[in-house]
Amino acid sequence: MQSETATDDSCPVDLTNCDREPIHILGAIQPIGFLLALTADWMIARASANTIDFLGLAPADLFGKPLQQVFSARAVHDLRNRAAMLRVSDAVERLFDCAIVDGGPAFDIALHFSNGQVVIEAEPASGEHGDASGMVRSMISRLDQCADFASFYREGARQVRALIGFDRVMVYRFAADGSGEVVAEAARSGIGKFMGLHYPASDIPAQARALYRRNLLRIITDVNATPVPILPERDEAGRPLDLSLSVLRSVSPIHIEYLKNMGVEASLSISIIVDGRLWGLFACHHYAPRRPSFERRSVAELFVQMFSMRLESRERQETVDYERRARDISDQLLGAVASDETLLKDPDWLGDILTHAIPADGVGVWLGGNHAFSGVTPPIEAFRRIVRALNGTAAGKVFATDHIGSLIPDAEAFASEAAGMLAIPISRSPRDYVVLFRKELIHSVRWGGDPHKPTAYGPNGPRLTPRESFAEWKELVEGRSRPFSSSEIRVAETLRATLIEVVLRLADEASTERQQASARQELLIAELNHRVRNILGLIRGLIRQSQPTGGDITNFVKVIDGRIHALARAHNQITDDHWGPAPIQALIDAEAAAFIDDGERIVTQGEPVLLNPNAYSTLALVLHELVTNSNKYGALSVKGGRVTLGWHRNPAGDLILEWRETGGPPVSPPTRKGFGTTIIDRSVPYDLGGAAKVDYDPSGVQAVFRVPARHLSDPQNGAGPRIIKYPRPAAGHPQAAPASILKGHDILLVEDSLIIALDAEDIATRLGAETVTTAATVQGALDSIDAARPSVAMLDINLGDQNSYPIADRLAEMNIPFLFATGYGEQADPPIAHRGRPIVQKPYTLENVARALDRLVGDGG
After folding, report:
1. Which domains, and CATH codes, for the chain?
2. How big is the chain by its Cα radius of gyration, in Å?
């Protein structure tokens, strides 16, 4: 901000004329020190007119000189080091007790950048060298002992006054409308009290507030002092020197007049910045000239920065505690309405719930053009006018005001019942609302002078003059309620989300809410489409990479079938726990057990370990290929051959998996690298970022895999190492299945996918079924049952947007045995009447269908 409009200063300030005519104080400083402005190469470009008083040199003798010709080498060295620390905008560095001229007096120095120039400000050193950090630490410890905000503010004012010795120190807090209030004060006796006084927003306009955020400490040591000009006033480009960050800069004559009208001869203000905004000021007044040392002012500034952080922490904790209680109430509301939806239309119940979070005197509900009241509310016609006016406000946002009269005319007529309100929209079009009302709060505001007193032309020319009277002015405020706080408005936003969720449960037909639901559905469809495409791409890759070189289509089908079922089994195991980690032991059980007919031929050794889903699917293919190859060519292909499969965690937490074959035929490296070998060699490094090493030792294949720790999870209740011998049943592996299980049976097959139905029909035929009748819908299946009674049935649970439970009911009535089929794994949840029925997990295989049907027809249903 340019200093032409960035005039200041300590609370309160009247700068209402700044946007009308610039006040030309930008080129002046207070006479307590001097100023030099340097170019980027540290040549003196400007100087204050009083340099001769401090350096013995007139400004004209300094222009164009390198700083090292004026200051001592040591001083220039220290200043350059300080300048290197100015890394952020609006930064100011300080240097205390610096002898800038050899043999000369010491100075306290402030250093900052201004439009590419280095600005050096110096004032005679005080010689004070106290323990600043220890002093501030002691001051902050006193703050931390304050139990509430009032004592916190009061203690802050006491600490600052003790530090700088001013007659009066005030903590001045800004309101949302820009006005301010003195919330704490420490003053010497006999000078009156400003505590509790309010000042209008015009006393400190927006441009002054912006400056307060940049320059945290401003001082006026003597209102009667004559400002010292900066020479030259403007540079070659006609630009003045921006003194926004200056420590010594002079202030507006309007502000000086303002202070004189108050009888103040020295002032100091320090900004209180909370959460990046100007919360308020420490405003300090003295009734005689006073200049606290630069060191004391710096300590005061540091203390106020710590005060601001403590204040921010306290406000945030208060908000967190309040909003936590409000969330509990929100959960209570949601839980209650979930069990009884009519409660939303009960204003007494709703009002009791909401006013526990946001205090109010009454509640009005406008839902679908109907209204309901609880407590103290405006008349119904006024409520209708309020709703219509709310429809013109920002859609989908909570609206709060302490003055309903600002929203609709003639609100004074019912102000005693409802002067302020907080409206929570719970739909969009047509608008529905829950409105909290507060009664009129008639109170007296103590102003620091009449805020409505007309201004007059003063001695500073055709500009508004600051008011001359600061006598306390009391104003009776009517037609307003207690304002709703920012925390209460945030809580209302939370409650709005809860209420909208409730309204959605009541089938709110608002178009915007329908669009949101549609967007969520589209997102789910897109995610499903993505996963299906991945699965289809994976299967396509398996088929292409597994194609036989010799044209053996039977073997090709068998290989593809084995690999796809390996993935399917792994997928079932990790989806049993909602796509969570699954034990490696279960993976080995599923992939190895079906090939083993001798319990001594394969042994696993290792502690319980859980594999995350991605790693589980990858290792499923790797182990499938290892077992398949060993069963074809390795140790498991001959009697007496053994496989040892062990695993452990290395010091880095990675899983080391070791496969060792012994007792098999002699081994030689493969002459052709097929897809199965590629899976073994490259899957773990490529997919998991691990390592794989396969050694084709003549005595037996040996393989070592390293799976990084990020793919592992520890069991909740781990056991020690264990040794497991096979065989054991493994669902989905190639097993010998009786070909006559369904001999003489007429089977009804209900499946809504033609390709899957054909596969299942083929399986049933291979199992000896006499006839197979297929149906894709509930009605088609019921018609088929009526046309020809089946002897056994297999029902896919999910049939598009229907399920097969009505078919199951009909079959149960007719005592026809049946089983269910599903792709939902263990998450399938039939109704109570059909709990315990056999369930076949998809994809269908000859083996899992045979086992289920064997039990079903063998048990007689």
Report:
1. 28-124 (3.30.450.20), 132-315 (3.30.450.40), 340-441+478-509 (3.30.450.270), 547-725 (3.30.565.10), 746-859 (3.40.50.2300)
2. 42
